[in-house]
């Protein structure tokens, strides 16, 4: 959808996965939702200062969007309820990465190619797919332990990422086994109490930040935490915050972080 002069279209994007895909394709939208929160929470790629923040992802500023006169508004399928109010402003392009299939990585490849074709960036889309595939080359030399992926919700509850999550898909692509064999929600994430980490005593743990202060205090004081087999044996890795509902740029970042973390010896990681 590039114009005759080869310029990029005027796009408004309400989904962070689509935002990072556009940026990776070399296209800056004219506006995006919650750019400040994106920078703090996801930060996969920097958002140019030229991109206007048009409010919340689920409640954007419609008057502002109208004033910007976009060529298209990009949303994910979970935002479909907004179509009736967005459609009078510009054509709405709807993309689906998280559809309950458990294959967000595969879907992100399709979305990247689709979006690239629509905006005249098919070559860049192909390059992004190829770079992602290269980053997902199976990990060599790993000891074969299965892995539990989680983040803290508070001092006593965690969000555990199953095989159908983006992080779980990346783990599988790297040739690693997810120790959590049960299912989660449509987004591949299941909230659990802390003792769930003890259900796979031989696993290695990977914890995504941020770690809230109550959880930090718990880790320093709790016999339950210190008694977890993986914690006791030093089989614990801490990673920085990652937006686990992203697209291919997030998948590449996850792959790099996991490779680096698993290359470190057991017993060395400390919460940052």
Automatic annotation (TrEMBL):
Gene3D superfamilies: Nitrogenase molybdenum iron protein domain. It is found in: Cell envelope. GO terms for cellular component: outer membrane-bounded periplasmic space. InterPro entries: ABC_transptr_periplasmic_BD, Bact_iron-sidero_bind. It holds the Pfam family Peripla_BP_2. PROSITE patterns: FE_B12_PBP. Keywords: Ion transport, Iron, Iron transport, Signal, Transport. The keyword RNA-binding does not apply. The keyword Cytoplasm does not apply. Residues 10-267 form the Fe/B12 periplasmic-binding domain. It comes from the Bacteria. Transmembrane segments: none annotated. GO terms for biological process: iron coordination entity transport. Belongs to the bacterial solute-binding protein 8 family. This is ABC transporter substrate-binding protein. It comes from Acidisoma silvae.
């Amino acid at each position: 959808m590039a114009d005759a002069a080869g310029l990029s279209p005027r796009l408004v994007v309400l989904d962070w996965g689509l935002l990072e895909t556009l940026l990776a394709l070399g296209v800056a939208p004219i506006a995006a939702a919650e750019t400040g929160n994106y920078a703090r929470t996801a930060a996969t790629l920097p958002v140019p200062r030229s991109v206007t923040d048009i409010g919340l992802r689920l409640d954007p500023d419609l008057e502002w969007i109208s004033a910007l006169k976009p060529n298209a508004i990009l949303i994910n399928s979970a935002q479909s309820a907004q179509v009736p109010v967005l459609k009078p402003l510009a054509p709405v392009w709807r993309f689906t990465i998280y559809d309950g299939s458990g294959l967000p990585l595969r879907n992100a490849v399709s979305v990247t190619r689709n979006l690239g074709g629509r905006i005249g960036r098919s070559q860049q889309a192909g390059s992004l797919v190829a770079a992602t595939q290269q980053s997902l080359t199976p990990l060599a030399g790993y000891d074969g332990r299965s892995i539990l992926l989680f983040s803290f919700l508070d001092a006593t509850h965690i969000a555990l990422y199953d095989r159908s999550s983006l992080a779980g898909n990346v783990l599988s692509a790297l040739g690693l086994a997810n120790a959590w064999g049960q299912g989660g929600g449509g987004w591949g994430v299941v909230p659990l109490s802390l003792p769930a980490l003890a259900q796979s005593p031989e696993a290695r743990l990977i914890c995504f930040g941020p770690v809230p202060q109550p959880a930090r205090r718990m880790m320093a004081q709790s016999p339950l935490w210190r008694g977890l087999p993986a914690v006791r044996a030093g089989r614990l890795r801490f990673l920085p915050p990652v937006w686990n509902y992203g697209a291919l740029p997030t998948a590449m970042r996850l792959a790099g972080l996991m490779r680096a973390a698993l290359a470190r010896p057991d017993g060395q990681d400390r919460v940052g």
